[in-house]
Amino acid sequence: MKLLSSILPLFSLASATLLVDYHGGESVSKLGIYSLEGQNLGDHIDGPGTSSCFIKPGVDPSGRAALHFHREAHFRRAEVEGIKQYGANQNYFVGYNFMLQRSHDSLVIFQWKKDDKLSHPIQNIPFNIEFSGGNLRVQYQEPSNGAVENGYTVLWTDTSALALNTPHHIGIAWDTFDGHRNRLRLWLDGAKKLDKSGLNLWTGQTYTKFGIYRGELAAGQKANPEQHVFDSYVYRVQVSDKALAEVMDASGGIS
């Protein structure tokens, strides 16, 4: 009986079904749907995009299979919108294995995005992962019961710049239970960086977004466009609503 009881948890974990189980080189549809934009909000581009802004399966510069995200200087978004199977009163665990060739202030690589940001309480992006200079940080937006959305609060900023042209692993865990008591945790390359409670991370249908957003060159500006050209290579994404252990491959072995 002792042997059986020790095997059962492992069998349960192995037989569980991930919400997302993406491997580099697979179709975008395995991760979600295209979300591509030109200079301005609403300048929609059909996927897989154009030579200036695209998302397509391919390889990184070393030949490793990856989902390649690319944006030229005057394009604002190349993201994959997570399959909308998220809900209230759940736990979520994400593993995200990727490489960036360039960073920039305000470049966002992950969003937990509310579908209808104007439905009350107003909340556009409960949290995201973006760059401040060359350093990653996590921002949180408190819901608003007023007529406009609140600003963002920085929950964590890394003490060192993210190494570019180097694969990284991010692990994220959060919950969507009712009440102003949600917990958000984040790991970078296996090291815990953030553990924050007392947040409100579900005020309506919300979903994941992976890729490269913002950090674009402003309209009419032409100086140093190369600083706003971005390439991201995504090797692995796992999303679970069961356990942190289910996303170990993509998150880099966190605990």
What does this 3D model show about the protein?
There is one protein chain. By secondary structure, the chain is mainly beta. It is built from two helices and 16 strands. A hairpin with a 6-residue loop joins β12 and β13. The radius of gyration is 18 Å and the shape is globular.
Comma- or semicolon-separated keywords:
255 residues, mainly beta, 8-stranded antiparallel β-sheet, 2 helices, globular
Mind sketching the topology for me?
Blueprint: H1 2-15, E1 20-23, E2 32-37, E3 44-45, E4 53-59, E5 65-71, E6 77-82, E7 91-100, E8 108-114, E9 127-132, E10 135-141, E11 152-157, E12 168-175, E13 182-188, E14 191-199, E15 206-213, E16 230-240, H2 248-251
Antiparallel strand pairs: 1-16, 2-3, 2-6, 4-5, 5-16, 6-15, 7-12, 7-16, 8-9, 8-15, 9-10, 10-11, 12-13, 13-14
Write a compact overview of the structure shown.
This protein is mainly beta and 255 residues long.
**Helix-strand category:** mainly beta
Instruction: Summarize model confidence as the mean pLDDT.
Output: 93
Global morphology: globular
> Spans of 5+ residues with little confidence (pLDDT < 50)?
1-15
Main sheet specs: 8 strands, antiparallel
User: Strand percentage, roughly?
Assistant: 35-45%
Written as H for each helix and E for each strand, in order along the chain, the element string is HEEEEEEEEEEEEEEEEH
The CA-CA distance between the termini, in Å, is 28 Å
Using DSSP, what is the number of strands? 16
Helix content: under 10%
The total count of helices amounts to 2
| Radius of gyration (Å) | 18 Å
